Target: Endoribonuclease YBEY, chloroplastic-like isoform X1
Amino acid sequence: MAKSVAGAAFLIASRPRLLYSLPSISSALSSTLPRTSPIPSTSPSPSLVPFPLFSSKTQWRCFRIPTLCSQSPGPFSGFFATLRGFRKLRRRPAVKKQPPQEKQVELKVNICIEEQMPDDPEILSIAEMLRLNVPMAMKIALDGLKDSEYKTRDTSINDVGKYEKIEISLLLCNDNFISKLNKEWRGEDCATDVLSMPQHIPELDIPILMLGDIIISVETAARKAEARGQILIDEIRMLMIHGLLHLLGFDDEISDEAEAEMEKEEELVLKSLGWKGKGLIKSARDVNVRQIQAGRSDGNAINETERAGSLRFYKPKFRYIFCNMDGTLLNSRSQISTENAEALREAISRGVNIVFATGKTRPAVISALKVVSLVGKGGVVSEVSPGIFLQGSLVYGRQGGEIFRRSLGQNICREAFLYSLEHEVPLIAFSQDRCLTLFEHPLVDSLHLDYHEPKAEVMPSVEHLLATADIQKLVFLDTVEGISSTLRPYFIKATEGWAGIVQAQPGMLEIVPAGISKGTGVKMLLDHLGIPAKEIMAIGDGENDVEMLQLASLAVALENGSDQAKAVADVIGESNNEHGVAKAIYQYAF
Model:
């Protein structure tokens, strides 16, 4: 329901009036809207005219409306008088009497879009429609003020014919923006659909009637429109009328009689204009009745599905999200949940680039995401997309072209495979898109069946394997106890200065080239793409994600992650089994 902030004009009279101008709407709809420097609006006397709520730190994109004046003797005659003719007949009998000559009144309307809103075509189209709708609604509503018989309306605005100009601003924003205003001015820390900020000061004898500001959350409006079964523009028109009537002295919160009078006026204005809807007060009451009948009391609650659908009303905070796979995007069964998949789709639809930084091969990532149709055109990974693979040993850039590769020395590989044969511990060599091993083993099969890696090729001997391909990574597969008590201590000492030891999964010990990590791979890719680190968000869970998390502007470590990853993260997200990636995107990426 709409809310009116009483006395706002007195509290904000010392703040500067700054709006952000744009080209005409028609040109804006066919091109990306530029961000311009603030241009102070002209006013006859800054010391006398009350200023709007928003300070110079608040950025609006503002569509300035051409001056609209009545062209015939009455202040609101012609087409608009015809629209409201039924109201005049209701209030007094029709008399064939020429109205007295009155001066023209200029209407000035500013339609604005808050800076953090995306350049969404539907929002721009609604702003264009409001450019015409707001002056129409103003003329209909103002026309009936003099003859109003309402008992509860504040009549400080009554005879508008004494003014030379009437000004009003309407701002379209998202839930975050309106929540801050609602908390600051009304003490309610939640989003609402519409706020009215009156600026009229009756004691000032000036030729300009500054009605104030109407602020509408398009995000909340979209949810309410869906609940009411109507389109978004109809919902916003209804909210605009409700906010306008608040500025004109109506207040549905002071008493039941006041609510009834404002409800009646809403319906009259809507009917006069031929717009759909019953008015906000009646519509809200009908929805509440339906919720009670359905046994629901959570009418204001926003679930994860609704939040996901709201991302379209937010500009992305980051151009890139770097995401780990195992233990992060994939759950404990090495599967990507529907919730995570939908979050990735929503992110890329809003212009965010998803890049994977993983210990996996590229074919393994493609295989895992193919199940949820996120591969290829319109997906997040393909043979021509950038990415960091094999713990940073292999990095692909633009068009999926290789920009970096580093392999292990043969002496390290030879020692590891000889150890594997002697102690019968499975060992797999990763060479770009291939996996090589010396003997079959159930744990080797699990790497293919459970972790989506290419099926390992069994080589006849160590020397034959080393001659077959360069090796970027080695992975021992053993029990958690065997790795922590035997393998890790042994190879930390054996590879010192020659290679690095990484443990991303409890039952796996990885040997990678010295000085290589996901962090170095991300840094290399950012340099290649010309992207500053401040424009990236990273999500991970393991000790092998630490350098990547440290590099990102916002680092999210999931609840199931290692202590090392959590120690360097900015925030701790929910676990990989609770769709932690999806929730991090919804909460932090927009």
